[in-house]
Amino acid sequence: MSKKILIVGGGLAGTIIANGLCRHISTEIRKGDVSITMLGNTDTHMYQPGLLYVPFGKIRERELFRPQRKVLDKRIIFHIDPATNIDVDNKKVTCKSGAVHEYDYLVIATGSRLMPQNIPGMVEGAHWLYDLEGARKMRDALDKFEGGKIVVNVNAPHKCPVAPLEITFMLKEYMEGKGLWDKTEITYTYPIGRLHALEPVAEWAKPAMDAVGIKYETFFNTKEVDPKAKTISSEEGVTLPYDLLVTIPPHAGAEVITDSGLGDGGWVPTNKTKLLREGSTDVFVCGDTTNIPISKAGSTAHFEADTIIDNLASLLTEGRWARDYDGKVFCFVETGLKTGTYVWFNYTTPPNPGAPSQMIHWFKLAYNRLYWLSARGLL
Length: 379
What we know:
Elements: E1 3-8, H1 12-24, H2 26-31, E2 34-40, E3 44-46, E4 65-67, H3 68-71, E5 77-80, E6 83-87, E7 92-95, E8 100-102, E9 105-108, E10 112-114, H4 122-125, H5 132-144, E11 148-154, H6 163-177, E12 184-189, H7 199-212, E13 215-217, E14 222-226, E15 231-234, E16 239-241, E17 244-248, E18 251-253, H8 255-259, E19 283-285, H9 298-318, E20 329-334, E21 340-345, H10 358-375
Parallel strand pairs: 1-2, 1-9, 2-5, 9-19, 11-12, 11-17, 12-13
Antiparallel strand pairs: 3-4, 6-7, 7-8, 10-18, 14-15, 15-16, 20-21
């Protein structure tokens, strides 16, 4: 009897897994022994890390998008029909259309969503770069900015943990390029007692900010934004004035996760090495959807996806487990508009950011072009 693999989510994680499986079990698919079905929310695939460059006019919007059907292997059954209920007890998923899909193995890769509305005044008073509309509005605001106080406000949880640092350093160099740095002050806020959740990254960031005159405020858990007064206040009682507020809004997981009773906040409790939903042997979880305490980043999703591909292919063809996920993450970090560094780490090795260089910046720009090979599972 044919085995059914069902992938809920059409972002990077789900797309890599679907395409990778088509390569690893092509014979079984051709014989009809295995089928792969993906449930997505849209017919368009977006390169989300590219949004970082939109506010600075460093990327064309059309470079961020491809038709999802063209990114996917033609053997994948693809439905634009968002999941509304995931029933892991009866091994079936119900969609918005009312269609019901059964499965033998399920991959949940539903990602995360922005929740600026959770903080009073944030929608009205802040700019962000985590979706296209926000990045466009931030670009327009920067075009009109003539100097003043910029606050870069970081909230938790959020995906792409180095993006707040990147946007901060990029803003500084952008202001220099416009001849506005002597009229501008940047203050970076972070909710815990250092500048980044990863201590080695925080230890690197502090002297880097000191060296270029970027201020910072730690233990800043956002309470509210006052768009009229142009202030942002913390639960700790600190109020900062701003002329331009750039925020990393708090994130939550997909509604279908909470609606299905699979996890608080939309995050699924996940075994950190097996990438299986806790208590399951047939439900894999990948990317932002997991509750694993590591970075919610594209590279995390990629390395997790590679592990899931190997294990699913091995289970289907050999009836055995292939390997565990070691927590590997690799992130380029823009340290301005022309330089960058990187961090890599896993469960046992902490990150150790190196000295920024123009070459690493070029590597990141090159990856922006190679992303589509990555999504197709070829890189």
